[in-house]
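Quick one: 3-oxo-5-beta-steroid 4-dehydrogenase isoform 2 from Scophthalmus maximus, structure tokens please.
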Amino acid sequence: MHSVRNNDNKCKEDKASRFKPGNDFYPKDGDGNYIYHHTDLCATWEALEACKDAGLVKSLGVSNFNRRQLELLLNKPGLRHKPVSNQVECHPYFTQPKLLEFCRQHNIVIVGYCPLGSSRDASWVNVKCPPLLEDELLVSIGKKYNKSSAQVALRFNVQRGVVVIPKSFSPERIKHNFHIFDFSLTEEEMKAIEALNKNIRFVELLMWSDHPEYPFHDEY
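--- reply ---
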């Protein structure tokens, strides 16, 4: 996306490339390349604001937005509704401290996906990042509280104000993931887990790295 503003802080040009409209969810050309489509991000947000004004949705949020993309919306002339949430990858190996602080300053809640790491499917996951739940620190802290490394990882994010959305199809594991509110991590333990940060994503979405609005080229 390229955004140009005049002295009145109005968007003169704001074109974002999405996927070409049609029946294909991720359309490709004859050479197997993804087909992108130029849209206006500010105009898209205004359409979502109209949905909220009409009572069709309760809140508006975004996903995988970096700071620059969030600022584009926050600085939009005539903004009526700010994003209330930003869904991004967030876990002890990718703690997102700068983005988390920026969102806190603007009352945007971080919703952390992959809070337990991810599968080891090399077709879409960065397997260079070691399995999160096997981390020795998380395992040792879990033993102290009679919890699993997964529960410690979830508690870490919840305790720092991040909403966690662990995925599971197992009823027992879903119940297990809820049992994180009967213990608290100490300040020293929180700092130790924060120090595990490797700034490595499990989900890089490299298949779309040529997208003009690929968000992960920026630092945060």
